[in-house]
Hints:
The chain is an alpha/beta fold.
Amino acid sequence: MQPKDLLQLSEQFGSPLYVYDADKIKSQYNRLTKAFSKVEKLRINYAMKALSNVAILQLLEGMGSGLDTVSIQEVQLGLHAGYAPERIFYTPNGVSLEEIEEVYALGVQINIDNLSILEQFGAKHPNVPVCIRINPHVMAGGNANISVGHIDSKFGISVHQLPHLVRIVENTKMNIVGIHMHTGSDILDIEVFLYAAEILFDAARHFKDLEFLDFGSGFKVPYKKDDIETDIEELGKKLSKRFNDFCVEYGKNLTLIFEPGKFLVSEAGQFLAKVNVIKQTTSTVFAGIDSGFNHLIRPMFYGSSHHIENISNPKGKERFYSVVGYICETDTFANNRRISELKEGDILSFKNAGAYCYSMASNYNSRYRPAEVLWMNGKGHLIRAHETFEDLLKNQIPLPVQEKV
Ligand SMILES: *Cc1c(COP(=O)(O)O)cnc(C)c1O
């Protein structure tokens, strides 16, 4: 996508605006399948919490992807988008037994991540194929908020509790068909993956009726030019070999599953916003935009840094700006960032806005959430309209007029 395409879309659909590039999603999907082409049974389940627009789900379904979901509502969206139930995985954390049973009734593969629910579920449904989530206690990932494999993490069943786990499975005659792990986001070092894989293999040896091993996700994507990223090709080469060897040892061709979110959609997304005001202070030049952390919370939430380009003036002389939002709290997208010279009315593009951006957007400050556009075959398709005043009032119930305190 060229700056002129983006400018045209922001003209046509208004600002702020989310734009996703279908070709980039496809090339990432193909890159991952190619890296693991030596594995006979490979399955990719898109972790839809990253970006859950139904059109994006349909796009990935068309490429052959399955779906990884974390709530019953995500399961319902997946079914609505046309995924067969058997292509949907449900990997929740801390949900009720009732929700797990409801999802199971929809025909979806369930994954249980704690012993208490496992025991209760197993006692009631002894023959149901269940996957279990192991916590390998591998410290991985960019920061404390997105690293979920460490010792005091709430996710998964500790590998140290394997004997207890095995006892529950034997007592309830449960049918364990898969072992899963997901150690967090932004894993740089493929050795970490390989180390965690060994722990998963060790756990797998305790169960004799497995059909798949799910390695989760956590691939690091680049956030700017020359940024580091997970070397998928190298990982593919090493882990495929190790996985295939394990299958020989296990005596069965298991399916290898990944469930990437960020890897598939992060770089495909751009967030466009307009500069409302340039404010020169004694120390800083602020660029105030027509958006805020209500639309893109990652910088304020966990300090992520999104590359920002002035697409109205991409070749201008670079100056330093602090890009801030309009929310009435500290609302900073970037501090003293080099951006080509800005004037009021210019359109900024925030890169890597495909994953955990729109899906975390809110109506804070009673602002509308923006529209979403999918760029496909050289054309922009509106896949979600921006909100209107009716959306803010929807579900609100005013007091009856005669009621007074
Ligand atoms: C969020 C999540 C993912 C996706 O993680 P990314 O870093 O976006 O690839 C995969 N699996 C589970 C269980 C998750 O919760």
